[in-house]
Design goal:
Elements lengths: L1 E2 L8 H4 L10 E13 L5 E13 L11 E9 L2 E11 L1 E6 L17 E13 L4 E8 L17 E7 L1 H5 L6 E2 L6 E3 L4 E4 L2 E2 L5 E7 L2 E2 L26 E2 L20 E2 L5 E4 L5 E13 L2 E15 L13 E2 L4 E6 L3 E4 L12 E7 L2 E5 L4 E4 L4 E9 L11 E10 L2 E2 L2 E4 L8 E5 L2 E2 L6 E5 L4 E2 L5 E2 L5 E10 L5 E10 L8 E3 L3 E3 L2 E7 L9 E5 L5 E2 L5 E4 L3 E10 L5 E13 L6 E4 L9 E6 L6 E6 L3 E3 L5 E3 L4 E10 L5 E10 L4 E3 L3 E2 L13 E3 L5 E7 L5 E5 L20 E10 L5 E10 L2
Parallel strand pairs: 11-20, 22-28, 39-45, 54-59
Antiparallel strand pairs: 1-28, 2-3, 2-20, 3-7, 4-5, 4-8, 6-7, 8-9, 10-13, 12-18, 14-19, 15-16, 17-18, 19-20, 21-22, 23-26, 24-25, 24-27, 27-28, 29-32, 30-31, 31-35, 33-34, 33-36, 36-37, 38-40, 40-43, 41-42, 41-44, 44-45, 46-47, 47-50, 48-49, 48-51, 51-52, 53-55, 56-57, 56-58, 58-59
Length: 752
């Protein structure tokens, strides 16, 4: 591969001058306006004014001034007067500019950065016969600029002029279409489109001009016009022009070049070949004509950076091998070769050029990818060039030199043999061939292993359909692949099973796992568990109901029909289990009688463990337990036999609330302190919901309460008229601790 290189030289001229910079940061800008409308009486017009500024974001300069003040002046002949000042305008829409600027030859230095910022404001002006002059003033420019005298103390002024014709016609200024180039390649053609658009359809003419300067390094006094931020109140136009370093540079020759840098007056295209490294200030003016009359202009100046550039595109293609100088493309048996282009960066590649040299005959192609048919076996040369120069321009270019070898074909193949009924190694035999001679290398992949032998033997651990791959390679490193499937389904040499236990407690769930290998899901299983039960599962579970010893038999049948079986005598032993059981008294305990006695009724038990829900436990044979609250509780008894077998019994106990109360059969509400109130007497422990009511003989409810401590005093609802003597009915409704509703009814005699 041959590359056209221009080595990067970080321009010390540009970045390491020893001169002092005074807050240098502004490297370009322009000012435009949009008409928003004329007043109904035709005496006033409103404009949106836009100042677009560019700052050096990596050169150590200041940030955008935020906020900033702009001056509006009236221009009468050559004299200027301040109309107003627009204060406290904040920068917006800040963004970084891609310094590569779509040039594939540029690798941007790390210390060059450009940031764009926009100031906007709207102003309404009287329509007058003079021009308005709107200005931004700021010092200073970069001290490394080559084409200006004393650049470090040279400021920048960006202005826009709104002529009387522009005011009356509600004109819109032209607007530049693109961003200025940040980096330009030295000794390479420059072609930058600096054109603008005008939405009013006015004619535009382009020219180089001298940029304006304002401010200086004297300080920050608002009344010092040589300060860094000159005040628009006191520092009025006209502004001075920058001083070019003549005779080397002038306003119409702002950059050195061969051919000289120039601007097309009709298109605005700046072209030439810059031939000196450094930074240069370039001013452009766009003249706006309507019906042959000049009605306005658009000014921009910008700092151009001329740097050394390196090729950033690479000629590349798919190849068998790559060296620093060439691509090696090998074809094994095929005379037609597809060349796949992998060159980068595609954004910057303008053309492709292929040349094939076949026995002295040269053929060329210009497509991105090429398919070429060679006449026969042999070695050939070719070349691919990206961005091949036409002799008039010096494009970034790169060349790929290609060596093509068309070798004889190669065919990989093999056979195999094995005992289909008995597990064992498979014998593989290589049958590969090549027109170049004997096979040199073999790469076998068995799925469970590999080999590099010509004729290997391999034994699989697991049965199944096996995919075997052979890659054969000849002396030319040509390769071919053969893939075959093998149905490896032999019987295992021995049957191995693994029960989860050999001794179980009656009844016992015994699970069996088949460990025989190689087997898979295509095999058939026939289990005989010795207790009259069978199974065809691979890993079955059998429930042994009776005490005793049992033989187990397993027969395996391969998909090929081959069979093998094995019998294990007295493999499983089932021993007797105890039988858990118990009773308890009282059967319906309550909080008054809350101690429960448990009586063991198990059989063949040796040890005991009782669990009283989550309240406690006991190891006694016949324990007792006191329940401290009502509710439903689960009681568990686990019994153990001397052989280690266990059994479990459970029961549910309901501890009832204790409710024991009675109602008097008569009462005398005469306020003598004796029997003045009808109220239940007794124990209400466990009552959750309570309702006490009294009814007269005509079915009229004359009293009710939900309070345990409130009785009936013989008055209607305990505060109304006195009830007459007689017999009354009472009803007490309540709910016990289990949510069961209860009712107590009776009669009481009221005596006066």
């Amino acid at each position: 591969m041959t590359k056209f290189f221009i080595k990067v030289l970080l321009i010390t001229l540009t970045f390491f001058f020893s001169k002092t910079s005074f807050g240098a940061h502004i490297i370009g800008g322009d000012a435009t306006y949009k008409c928003k409308g004329v007043s109904a009486d035709g005496k006033m017009v409103t404009f949106e004014v836009i100042f677009t500024l560019y700052r050096d974001s990596r050169g150590g300069g200041a940030q955008f001034d935020n906020p900033f003040s702009f001056g509006i002046y009236r221009k009468s002949g050559n004299s200027y007067s301040r109309v107003r000042t627009i204060d406290n305008i904040y920068v917006s829409n800040t963004s970084n500019i891609d310094v590569q600027n779509e040039n594939p030859c540029i690798i941007a230095p790390v210390n060059i950065g450009v940031q764009k910022g926009v100031y906007k404001f709207t102003v309404t002006l009287d329509i007058i016969d003079d021009s308005y002059y709107i200005a931004y003033q700021r010092c200073c420019r970069n001290n490394t600029i080559l084409n200006l005298v004393n650049a470090a103390e040279t400021g920048a002024a960006f202005t826009t002029e709104i002529s009387p014709e522009a005011q009356r016609s509600c004109n819109n200024s032209p607007v530049f279409e693109g961003l200025p180039p940040v980096l330009i390649c030295v000794n390479r053609p420059l072609k930058y489109d600096n054109s603008a658009i005008d939405i009013d359809g006015d004619s535009l003419v382009y020219e180089f001009i001298t940029p304006l300067t304002a401010g200086g390094p004297d300080g920050a006094s608002p009344f010092d016009c040589r300060g860094v931020r000159p005040s628009p109140y006191s520092c009025l136009p006209p502004f001075e022009e920058v001083i070019f370093d003549e005779p080397n540079f002038t306003f119409d020759r702002p950059m050195a070049g061969n051919p000289v840098i120039s601007i097309n007056r009709q298109t605005g295209v700046i072209s030439g070949v810059p031939n000196i490294l450094g930074q240069f200030v370039v001013g452009v003016n766009v003249l706006e004509y309507r019906n042959g009359k000049l009605i306005g202009s658009l000014r921009r100046d910008f700092q151009f950076n001329v740097t050394v550039c390196e090729v950033t595109i690479t000629a590349d293609l798919s190849a068998s091998a790559k060296t620093p100088t060439e691509f090696l493309v090998n074809s094994c048996g095929a005379f037609t070769i597809d060349f796949i282009n992998q060159s980068t960066d595609a954004r910057y590649i303008k053309n492709y050029f292929w040349e094939f040299d076949v026995n002295g005959n040269k053929e060329t192609f210009t497509s991105r990818d090429v398919s070429y048919t060679f006449p026969g076996l042999g070695s050939y040369s070719a070349t691919m060039i990206i961005n091949k120069s036409d002799g008039n321009t010096a494009e970034c270019t790169d060349t790929a030199r290609i060596v093509v070898n068309v070798f004889p074909s190669i065919e990989a193949d093999f056979t195999f043999e094995f005992d289909t009924c008995k597990a064992g190694p498979i014998l593989f035999t290589d049958k590969s061939s090549s027109g170049a001679g004997p096979i040199q290398k073999w790469d076998w992949q068995f799925g469970e292993g590999s080999s590099t032998l010509q004729n290997p033997a391999f034994e699989y651990e697991f049965a199944g359909i096996k995919k075997v791959t052979l890659v054969a390679e000849d002396i030319n490193k040509c390769r071919d692949t053969s893939i075959q499937e093998i149905k490896y389904l032999p019987l295992p040499t021995i049957i191995i099973i693994d029960p989860n236990t050999f001794i179980g407690c009656q009844p016992a769930n015994i699970s069996f796992e088949n460990l025989s290998s190689p087997v898979d899901s295509t095999f058939k299983y026939a289990w005989d568990f010795g207790d009259g039960k069978t199974s065809t599962d691979a890993d079955p579970i059998n429930v042994y109901e009776d005490v005793g010893s049992y033989n187990v038999n397993l027969e395996l049948t391969a998909p090929t029909g081959c069979k093998i079986s094995k019998r294990w005598n007295n493999l499983i032993k089932i021993v007797e289990s105890p039988t858990a059981g118990f009773s308890f008294t009282p059967e319906e305990p309550n909080l008054y009688s809350n101690k429960v006695q448990f009586t063991d009724e198990s059989e063949n038990a040796f040890a005991y463990r009782w669990t009283f829900d989550e309240l406690g436990s006991s190891l006694l044979q016949n324990p007792s337990f006191e329940f401290q609250d009502t509710g439903t509780f689960n009681i568990t008894q686990v019994v153990l036999k001397t052989n280690g077998c266990t059994d479990t019994a459970t029961a549910e106990i309901k501890v009832l609330p204790f409710v024991n109360f009675y109602m008097p059969n008569a009462f005398t509400p005469n306020n003598d302190g004796l029997n003045d109130e009808l109220i239940p007497v007794g124990i209400f422990k466990g009552v959750n919901v309570y309702h006490f009511s009294v009814w007269n003989r005509w079915g009229d409810r004359i009293f009710e309460t939900k309070d345990f401590d409130t009785g009936w005093n013989g008055q209607r609802n305990n505060s109304g008229e006195y009830a007459p003597p007689g017999i009354y009915t009472f009803i007490i409704n309540y709910t016990n601790n289990f949510g069961k509703p209860e009712v107590l009814k009776g009669h009481v005699t009221l005596i006066r």
